Amino acid sequence: MLRTVTATRYVTPLREGGSLPAIIEADDAGLYVVKFRGAGQGAKALIAELISGELARAVGLRVPEVVLVELDAALGRNEPDSEIRELIKASAGLNLALDYLPGSVTFDPLAGPFPEGALASVIVGFDAFITNVDRTPKNPNMLCWHKDLWLIDHGASLYFHHSWEDWETRSQSRFNPIKDHVLLPWASALTTVEARLRAALTREVVERTVAAIPEAWLTGAESPFPTADAHRAAYVTWLLKRLDALPAFLEEAVRARAQLV
Predict the structure, then answer these.
(1) By mean pLDDT, which of 2-11, 166-175, 244-253 is the weakest?
(2) Domain count, the chain
(3) Residues with Cβ < 8 Å from 7, sequence gap 6 or more?
(4) How confident is the model at residue 261 (pLDDT cuts 50, 70, 90)?
(5) Do 128 and 244 fall within a single domain?
(6) Are 26 and 110 in a shared domain?
(7) How far apart are CA 253 and CA 189, in angstroms?
(8) Sequence-ordered list of residues with C-beta below 8 angstroms from that of 256, at least 6 positions apart, any chain
(9) Distance between CA atoms of 95 and 100, rounded to whole angstroms?
(10) Does residue 142 sit in the same domain as residue 160?
(11) Same domain, yes or no, for 33 and 145?
(12) What is the separation, in whole angstroms, between the first and last Cα of the chain?
């Protein structure tokens, strides 16, 4: 079950993010990087963050704590930037955030520290599973913190949900973009990944993760499903079908790596 905190102070925007995330302080005195529901990709990016982050944690990968953030539109009333004021106003209600990791630095594929083959392989395999197109040398979306790799920014994963047409068939995709994964050169143990993903991502884990999606993110004019429960059931189905396709997309990752080394 995800914790819910209430934003008490807007600290600073993180302008390197296309959706203008920000650091906020919450009522538990913690600092969080909040992703706003009112940003360009709306609730779908938050759903992708939630599902991908929590399933990565289930696999044993390091992800900052994911929390739900209750946001009052009045939080931005003293913000001089009109774009930020409008974003906060459009995001009133439940949003999503990741625990802020002070002192962390972006992973540099040229400078390291470089991951061991087993860890790199699990990250590559997991990103192929969630169809994450946004873990490239240009934009690694990983932080080095206390000598460990932490995964962040999964809003571009699960991109099938931006168009639900033929979604069950598309769950079997080999995921060609894996060839651009920043950790592919180090992923020397890809043949061991299938067993780890299958053991960790059981139906129970998948259903529990999807159940944590707030109902408000699943309903409305944009939803292709009649109810939030039907919407959740579709996510569960896609994820389980994606697990069925593990051999195909891991084979694609092995083939892509063979072109590099």
Answers:
(1) 166-175
(2) 2
(3) 24, 25, 26, 27, 34, 69, 70, 71, 72, 75, 95
(4) confident
(5) yes
(6) no
(7) 11
(8) 178, 179, 181, 184
(9) 15
(10) yes
(11) no
(12) 42
Of 84, 60, 23, 104, the C-alpha closest to 200 is: 60
Find the angle CA(246)-CA(250)-CA(252) to the nearest 5 degrees: 125
What's the rounded Cα separation, in Å, for the pair 244 and 246?
Answer: 6
Asked whether the CA dihedral 261, 174, 123, 102 is positive or negative, the reply is positive
Q: Tell whether the model's pLDDT for residue 17 goes beyond 60.
A: no
Q: Under 8 Å CB-to-CB from 61, ≥6 apart: which residues?
A: 122, 123, 126, 151
* Angstrom distance (rounded) from CA 251 to CA 176: 11
Domain span holding position 140 = 105-258
Tokens found for residue 219 = 């309903």
Q: Check if the beta carbon of residue 213 is closer than 8 Å to that of residue 51.
A: yes
Residues 95, 152 within the same domain: no
What distance in Å separates the CA atoms of residue 35 and residue 94, rounded to the nearest whole number? 10
Whether 83 and 111 map to the same domain: the answer is: no
Give the C-alpha separation, 128 to 242, whole Å. Answer: 10
Percent pLDDT > 70 in the chain is 98
In the prediction, which pLDDT does 240 show? 97
User: For the segment 105-149, what is each residue's pLDDT rounded down to a tens digit?
Assistant: 999 999 878 999 999 999 999 999 999 999 999 999 999 999 999
- Grade residue 80 by pLDDT with cuts at 50, 70 and 90: confident
Residue 16 clears pLDDT 70, i.e. is over it: no
161, two tokens = 């949900």
- Measured CA distances, 38 to 15, 43, 124, 141, 226 (Å): 16, 8, 30, 22, 23
User: Do 14 and 117 share a domain, yes or no?
Assistant: no
190 — phi, psi (to 5°)?
Answer: -60, -25
Indicate whether 221 pLDDT > 80.
no
